[in-house]
Amino acid sequence: MAERVRFPSSTGPTLAGVLDVPEGEARGWGIFVHGFTLGKDSPAAVRICRQLAAEGIGMLRFDALGLSDSEGDWGDGSFTVKVHDTVAAARFMAERGTPVSVLVGHSWGGAAAIAAGRDADVGAVVSIGAPSDPSNVERHYDAVVGRACQDGSAEWLIGGRALTLKRAFVEDVRSADLTDKVSTLDRPLLIMHSPIDNTVGIDNASEIFRMARHPRSFVSLEGADHLLTEPGQAQRAARIASAWVEPYLR
């Protein structure tokens, strides 16, 4: 069962989300943090959250600032805003009586989930295909980054959508550093990554694992592409996460 929800972002505009609710009694609740510009309705987000709900873990997936059904301007977001909005989502879940046990982040969202883990007060964090350096996303908009820095903003076309890249966004992403966030996470961390990921290389998983403290786990998603579009790959990742997170569910 899916329930549409809305809650305030860390900067003011309202964020739109979908709550995938288990049919029976919930074992626990979690939040899914989507990739860079993917949104709550991206295939990985939908398939992972629905599978986790089928496994008894209710999941909130929400659109980042200015994407799809959320209010605001995407260019006013950043890595820091994404992290703070994840914490805001956890606060929303607690206020509605479904406190969150786990953050599950995919791609850039995996890095944000790690960075938000302590402040979101969750029991565990799961990253899927996460970069060890959030600033790696600059290669996606490198054709317009110079103009954005010089003029203050620049229009950026991606996936048939026009987004506004702003200087403050670029500067925030460039200054993002996971090193301290990983080493001081103080939460169990499951790192999942495909060895054939051509978008975010497997060396990123190795670096995150190296920086993390125990309890930490690594699972190789053999045969999966970065977006988990191959049949069954997203569901497989969800089933692995469901089993691993069991001791940390509230």
SS class: alpha/beta
CATH top level? Alpha Beta
Would you give the CATH topology? Rossmann fold
**Cα end-to-end separation:** 21 Å
**At the fourth CATH level, what is the homologous superfamily?**
Alpha/Beta hydrolase fold, catalytic domain
Just name the CATH architecture.
Answer: 3-Layer(aba) Sandwich
Tell me the domain tally.
1
**Percentage of helical residues?**
25-40%
Q: Could you give the order of the helices and strands?
A: EEEHEHEHEHEEHHEHEH
Strand content: 15-25%
The biggest sheet, with number of strands, parallel, antiparallel or mixed sense and barrel status, is: 8 strands, mixed
Can you count the helices?
8
Domain AB hydrolase-1: 31-230
InterPro entries: AB_hydrolase_1, AB_hydrolase_Est10, AB_hydrolase_fold
GO molecular function: carboxylic ester hydrolase activity
Keywords: Hydrolase
Describe the protein in words.
With 250 residues, the chain is α/β, with parallel strands linked by helices. It has one domain (2-139, 177-248): Rossmann fold (3-Layer(aba) Sandwich). Helices cover 34% and strands 23% of the residues. The protein is built from 8 helices and 10 strands. The chain has helices spanning 43-54, 79-95, 108-116, 142-151, 167-175, 179-183, 203-211, 233-245, and strands spanning 2-8, 14-20, 28-33, 57-62, 102-106, 124-128, 153-158, 161-166, 189-193, 216-220. Helix 2 crosses helix 3.
